[in-house]
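tokens incoming
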């Protein structure tokens, strides 16, 4: 893929932020502003579209974001850096230079990292369940018989709820936490 296409793809819809980063002031939305190339007061029309399209009546030129940056003295390398394209290309070049054993180790490290994130997510979920269990235990131990019976009716038939009430609160806790 050519560098220009990579920049266009990476910058799609983000041209105001990218151009402002390199010192070319453009608004976020469609607007007439002074031309960053010729300096005309209100001849420059910023379209605010995905391609970063603009038109200057003074210069007589339609430009996309890349051409505007070039006409203001910036090069593709600078745009690539602002869009993150150069970093991706460098990573690919570096990965291609690494020996197969090192690439295998890096992939293994990524897998371990993903597994660790999965474990952390499960630990968060487990903590939520533990907190919920503690709430159930508190409810069973501190609720009146009527309140406890109503809670049991949420998951049992009336006959089973009555039977469970006769087994005692410890049995109810075991049932609710099972």
């Amino acid at each position: 893929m050519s560098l220009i296409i990579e920049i266009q793809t990476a910058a799609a819809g983000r041209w105001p932020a990218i151009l402002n980063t390199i010192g070319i002031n453009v608004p976020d939305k469609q607007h007439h502003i002074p031309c960053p190339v010729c300096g005309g007061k209100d001849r420059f029309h910023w379209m605010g579209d995905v391609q970063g399209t603009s038109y200057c009546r003074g210069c007589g030129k339609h430009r996309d974001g890349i051409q505007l940056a070039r006409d203001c003295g910036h090069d593709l390398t600078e745009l690539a850096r602002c869009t993150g394209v150069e970093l991706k290309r460098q990573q690919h070049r570096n990965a291609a230079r690494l020996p197969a054993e090192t690439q295998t180790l890096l992939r293994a490290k990524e897998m371990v990292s993903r597994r660790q994130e999965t474990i952390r997510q499960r630990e968060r979920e487990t903590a939520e369940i533990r907190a919920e269990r503690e709430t159930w235990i508190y409810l069973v131990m501190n609720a009146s018989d009527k309140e406890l019976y109503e809670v049991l009716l949420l998951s049992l038939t009336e006959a089973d709820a009555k039977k469970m009430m006769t087994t005692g609160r410890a049995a109810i806790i075991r049932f609710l936490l099972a």
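note: Residues 3-90 form a domain with the DNA Primase; Chain A fold (CATH 3.90.580).
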